[in-house]
C-alpha cells in the first residue's frame, strides 16, 4: 500500500515544479522567485536566494551543481554551484517560459509563448547559449478548418531522445476559445508537425488545455488535460504517434475535476495530481489510464508539480508550500526483470474471479519462481485500501505459476493486486469482476 510523508518546506508560497538530481538532492520552485533545496530526500529543505520575485514554473539540474530555473517575464536563471548563486541567461527572445527538459548534459529545450506564437528554445552547449524557433504550425479545428487559432500557448514538453520530442499547451481563437494542442518533432526541433488530440467543434468553449506530456516509447505518449467531463481527461498517442485520442478513464464520477501534472514510470504505470469533487487526489493507473486507484494525500492543498526519483518514491509540490513524499512499494523495477525472468518476454498476468466470487485465480507468465514461500499477493480496492487475503496457494511451472487466492467476497467493481517475489514487486494487476485483468510489471 502507498504511504505519504508531509515534508516541511519552510515557505507558504505556491510551489509549481520539483526536480531531483538523485534520490537525495532535489529542488522545488514556485511563486515570488522561490527556490528550495534538499540534500536528504526532503527531510529538510532550505531556501535559496535568486534575487527575483518572478513566478518560477520549471526547474532542471544537469548534475548536483549545474541547473536552471525558468518562469514568467523572460526569466531563465542558471547556477553552477548547486544554487548558491544564480545568473541571468542571455536569451534570443523575450517571452514567458513554462517548461524545461534536458535529454543529456549538453542538449536541452525550453518552451513558452510571446505575442507571435509558441517559443521553442534549444541549447547544445549545456545551457550557455540558446537558439530560438517560433512554432506556428497549423492549429485549425479539424472539424471546421475555417477556425484557425489566433495565438499559441506552449506549457509542457517531453523528449524521448535527441531527435524525438513533443510540446503542448493550447491554441486560442478569439471567437471560439481554446483547444488542446500538441506538436511533434523528429529532428531535434528543426521542424514540427501538428498531432493535436481529436477535438469536437462544440468543445471549443470548454477551455481545454494540455497541462502535462509524457513521451514513453516511439509509439506511446500521454497528454493530460486541465479538466475533465464525462470521465475523460487523458489523451493517448496512436501507433507511431501520428496523433492523440481521448481515453475514457473509468472514474465513477460525473462531477467537474481538475488535473495538473503527471508522471509515467513505464508505458502502463502513471500518476496524476488532481482535484476531484473539491478534494486533492493523486490518481494511479497501471493500465495506461483505463482505470485508476485513488491515493488520497494527507492535505487539502492542490498539487501542481511531480517528480519520481525511482519507481517507489515520488514527490508532489503545490499550494502554500506543500511538499509530499509518496512511497509506493507496489511498483516493479525493470532491473528486477533480469533476476526473475530468463526469457526476453515481459512478465504479465491474467486474473479472473472464481465462480463464487470469494476468491481469484491469477495466472502469471514469463517469471521463473523456485520456491512457493518466496511469493506473496496483496489485494487493494480503488481507494488503495488493502483487502485481507485469507490464504493463497501456488502451483509452479517452468516459467509461470498459478495462484489461487481466497479473499472476502468481492462486490462488483475494480480491484488491484500486487504480486511480490522476495518482497520485491514483480506484477501489478487489475481485476474486474467478470472480466480479464490488464496488467503491468
Question: Can you describe this structure?
Answer:
- The protein has 441 residues and is mainly β.
- It folds into two domains: 3-327, 7 Propeller (Methylamine Dehydrogenase, Chain H); 334-440, Immunoglobulin-like (Sandwich).
- It has one helix and 37 strands.
- The strands form eight sheets. Strands 18, 19, 20, 21, 22, 23, 24 and 25 form an eight-stranded antiparallel β-sheet that branches. It has a five-stranded antiparallel β-sheet with strand order 32-31-35-36-37, with no helix packed on it. It has a four-stranded antiparallel β-sheet with strand order 1-28-27-26, with no helix packed on it.
- The model is unreliable at 435-441 (pLDDT under 50).
Topology:
Layout (H helix, E strand, L loop, with lengths): L2 E5 L7 E6 L5 E5 L4 E4 L7 E3 L7 E6 L5 E5 L3 E5 L7 E2 L7 E7 L5 E7 L2 E7 L7 E5 L15 E9 L5 E9 L3 E9 L7 E2 L15 E8 L2 E10 L2 E6 L6 E5 L8 E8 L5 E7 L2 E7 L7 E3 L7 E8 L2 E6 L4 E5 L9 H4 L7 E6 L5 E7 L9 E6 L5 E2 L1 E8 L3 E8 L6 E8 L2 E9 L6 E2 L1
Antiparallel strand pairs: 1-28, 2-3, 3-4, 4-5, 6-7, 7-8, 8-9, 10-11, 11-12, 12-13, 14-15, 15-16, 16-17, 18-19, 19-20, 19-22, 20-21, 22-23, 23-24, 24-25, 26-27, 27-28, 29-30, 30-34, 31-32, 31-35, 33-34, 35-36, 36-37
Amino acid at each position: 500500500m502507498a504511504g505519504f510523508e508531509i515534508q516541511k518546506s519552510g515557505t507558504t508560497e505556491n510551489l509549481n515544479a520539483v526536480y531531483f538530481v538523485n534520490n537525495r538532492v532535489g529542488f522545488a520552485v514556485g511563486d515570488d522567485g522561490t527556490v528550495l533545496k534538499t540534500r536528504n530526500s526532503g527531510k529538510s529543505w532550505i531556501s535559496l536566494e535568486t534575487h527575483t520575485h518572478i513566478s518560477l514554473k520549471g526547474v532542471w539540474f544537469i548534475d548536483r551543481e549545474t541547473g536552471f530555473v525558468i518562469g514568467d517575464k523572460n526569466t531563465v536563471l542558471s547556477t553552477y554551484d548547486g544554487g548558491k548563486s544564480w545568473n541571468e541567461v542571455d536569451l534570443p527572445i523575450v517571452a514567458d517560459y513554462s517548461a524545461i527538459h534536458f535529454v543529456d548534459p549538453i542538449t536541452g529545450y525550453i518552451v513558452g509563448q510571446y505575442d507571435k506564437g509558441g517559443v521553442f528554445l534549444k541549447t547544445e552547449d549545456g545551457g550557455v547559449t540558446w537558439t530560438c524557433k517560433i512554432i506556428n504550425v497549423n492549429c485549425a479545428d479539424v472539424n471546421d478548418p475555417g477556425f484557425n487559432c489566433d495565438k499559441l500557448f506552449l506549457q509542457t514538453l517531453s523528449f524521448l531522445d535527441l531527435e524525438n520530442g513533443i510540446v503542448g499547451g493550447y491554441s486560442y481563437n478569439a471567437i471560439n476559445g481554446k483547444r488542446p494542442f500538441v506538436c511533434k518533432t523528429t529532428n531535434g526541433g528543426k521542424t514540427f508537425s501538428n498531432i493535436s488530440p481529436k477535438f469536437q467543434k462544440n468543445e471549443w468553449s470548454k477551455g481545454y488545455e494540455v497541462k502535462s506530456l509524457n513521451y514513453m516509447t516511439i509509439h506511446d505518449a500521454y497528454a493530460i488535460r486541465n479538466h475533465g467531463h464525462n470521465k475523460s481527461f487523458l489523451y493517448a498517442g496512436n501507433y507511431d504517434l501520428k496523433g492523440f485520442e481521448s481515453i475514457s478513464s473509468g472514474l465513477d464520477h460525473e462531477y467537474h475535476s481538475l488535473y495538473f501534472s503527471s508522471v509515467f514510470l513505464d508505458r502502463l504505470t502513471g500518476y496524476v495530481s488532481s482535484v476531484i469533487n473539491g478534494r486533492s487526489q493523486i490518481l494511479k493507473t497501471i493500465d495506461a489510464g483505463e482505470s485508476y486507484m485513488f491515493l488520497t494525500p494527507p492535505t487539502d492543498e492542490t498539487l501542481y508539480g511531480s517528480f519520481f526519483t525511482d519507481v517507489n518514491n515520488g514527490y508532489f509540490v503545490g499550494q502554500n508550500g506543500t511538499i509530499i513524499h509518496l512511497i509506493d512499494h507496489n511498483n516493479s523495477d525493470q532491473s528486477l526483470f533480469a533476476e526473475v525472468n530468463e526469457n526476453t518476454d515481459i512478465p504479465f498476468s491474467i486474473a479472473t474471479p472464481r465462480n463464487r466470487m470469494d476468491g481469484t485465480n491469477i495466472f502469471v507468465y514469463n517469471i521463473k519462481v523456485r520456491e512457493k514461500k518466496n511469493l506473496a499477493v496483496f489485494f487493494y480496492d480503488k481507494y488503495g485500501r488493502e483487502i485481507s487475503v485469507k490464504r493463497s496457494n501456488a502451483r509452479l511451472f517452468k516459467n509461470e505459476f498459478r495462484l489461487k487466492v481466497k479473499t472476502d467476497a468481492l462486490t462488483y467493481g475494480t480491484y488491484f493486486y500486487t504480486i511480490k517475489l522476495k518482497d520485491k514487486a514483480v506484477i501489478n494487476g487489475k481485476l474486474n469482476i467478470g472480466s480479464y485483468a490488464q496488467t503491468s510489471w
